[in-house]
Amino acid sequence: MKIRSYILKRLKQGRAPVNKATDNNLMQQVKDGNVEKMAILFERYHVMLYNFFLRLTSNRSISEDLVQDVFIRILKYRSSYKGQNKFIIWLYRIARNTHIDYLRKRKDEVSFGEQWDEVPSQEPTPPEKVEQAQEIVRLSQALAKLPLKKREVLILSRFQNLKYKEIAELLDCQIGTVKANIHRATKELGKAYFELSGGIAS
């Protein structure tokens, strides 16, 4: 099922019953053969993953496909789950590998302008809404200009709200390295955004 269709279905049905089991516990059950528990993990994380991929690819359809690929891989490689770390770290490792594999399989590079698939509204838009939408597009374009590793660390920190410790664990590096990389990526993002806004970066 497409992620977008699933979201619409969930909105019509209302919020799913709350399940208080931890992510690690649910994944351990999936590993042990109770694959129905994947539905709870999907409910918890599909939107977060979709946003992660959308900021990496700027393409809704590709992001939906990548989210589905992640959960397919979770089922396929569930026996490799060890449970020593937070489930979310393992999840993001699979997500990063899924995105890297997608990039490797692409034969033709697509420019950001071709990737961006927002459909403009046909209704009149207030000037402040237009300006806000333009800022969002410029920010996305600025993100797209960053090298993948800088884009990833910035998205994980600023948009996915992972802690420095979690990012360090995910990327297998020191917390100080994460902080330095985020600082550099933030400066580079600001420079790219400034240039896209019509400024001349020094």
Tags for this entry?
202 residues, mainly alpha, Rna Polymerase Sigma Factor, Chain: A, Arc Repressor Mutant, subunit A, 10 helices
Describe this structure in words.
With 202 residues, this protein is an all-alpha fold. The protein folds into two domains: 1-116, Rna Polymerase Sigma Factor, Chain: A; 126-202, Arc Repressor Mutant, subunit A, CATH 1.10.10. 70% of the residues lie in helices and 0% in strands. It has helices at 3-13, 23-31, 38-57, 60-76, 87-105, 112-115, 127-145, 148-159, 164-171, 175-196. Helix 4 (60-76) crosses helix 5 and helix 7 (127-145) packs across helix 10 (175-196). It is globular. The N and C termini lie far apart (48 Å).
CATH fold-level topology of the largest domain = Rna Polymerase Sigma Factor, Chain: A
Largest sheet: none
- The rounded Rg comes to 19 Å
- Domain tally: 2
Structural class: mainly alpha
**Low-confidence residue ranges:** 110-122
Q: Please give the share of residues in helix.
A: 55-70%
Instruction: Give the CATH level 1 class of the largest domain.
Output: Mainly Alpha
* H/E element sequence: HHHHHHHHHH
CATH superfamily of the largest domain: RNA polymerase sigma factor, region 2, helix turn helix motif
Helical stretch tally: 10
